[in-house]
Amino acid sequence: MLARAFGLVGKTWKRTPTMSVEASASPRRRSQMPQQQLCHLHGSTPSQRQKFPEEQLPGDTVEGSFDLRFAALKSIGEDRVNDRELKLLLKKKHAPICYVWCDPCPWMHISQGIMKTLNINKMVESGFKVKILMADWFSQMNSEISGNLNKMRTVGRYNIEMWKATGMALDKVDLVWLSDEIRRHGDEYWPIVMDIARTNSVRRIKSVLAYYFRRRHPAWAIFMEDDKEDICFKMEKAFCPPKLAEGNPCLEYIKYIILPWFGMFEVVQKKGNGGKKTFLSMEELTADYESGALHPADVKLALEKSLNEILQPVRDHFGRNGEAKDLVEAIGECYGAD
């Protein structure tokens, strides 16, 4: 329903076959993490990221073979069209436009920062055209900034600066502001809104919109703004049941953040637990963990170290870059007392 109202606004968005490849992260620090990707904890530099393979076969383009391009999009999101439709799209259009939704958020969840960077860079490296839709229009529902669109634009620019610090290929990405699209194509947008209003109850619409603003405690997840002390505290409190891999939030962080970023996960175990070991796949790590060969305390310490390595360049950027510092101050003013 929301995709119908906000995902395809204006004729320019409708002319080209498109595919939405990534679910958005929630817009507030207390928000829920993507359920199909990461669980809450309780219940390196950009050059170190694992690169998407650039194998070139006879008749293929520099972006890779059809199979590699298909695998790139298939690996990004679970909520996608079926494989047959995706293959037909790639055969029909060599470089389809991938639209990526972003709810501007003053405290960026690690899935919004790191996972989005990984996925967008993978799409760019595979030769796809990427447009990030900055959903600033929803600021009118945000009471914390009194529905101020200019303040939400500042939040959006802060998010973009965060992606710059993580190494996102922003020079090859188009940034589109939802409020601009709605203003330019209001004659198409508002009839859709009226149609939704006629066919859905107010209660249903509120329940859908509330999903994007659901509150969660900040100690339940990792944020891009977390310092070393924050990470240490959260790892100490993190739920990591021994010999249980399914639904284990620490292992999910390793699966969706650490392994895709570094291409490996290194655990320095205590002498009595087997010593140092490097895991190159989630299957290998899961097998050791479920057998008891890998202790939860060692996993949590290694995860803490890896998260800090990922976030340190971000901390350095916002500590040294003048424009980044100004945006941090502006965010504080936006969410300060009126």
TrEMBL record:
One Gene Ontology term from the biological process aspect of the record: tyrosyl-tRNA aminoacylation
Region Disordered: start-end pairs: 18-38
Protein's recorded name: Tyrosine--tRNA ligase
The entry's keywords: Aminoacyl-tRNA synthetase, ATP-binding, Ligase, Nucleotide-binding, Protein biosynthesis
InterPro entries for this protein: aa-tRNA-synth_Ic, Rossmann-like_a/b/a_fold, Tyr-tRNA_synthase
Classification via SUPFAM superfamilies: Nucleotidylyl transferase
A GO cellular-component term linked to this record: cytoplasm
Lineage of the organism: Eukaryota, Viridiplantae, Streptophyta, Embryophyta, Tracheophyta
GO molecular function: ATP binding; tyrosine-tRNA ligase activity
Family, per entry: Belongs to the class-I aminoacyl-tRNA synthetase family.
PANTHER family hit by this protein: TYROSINE--TRNA LIGASE, TYROSINE-TRNA LIGASE
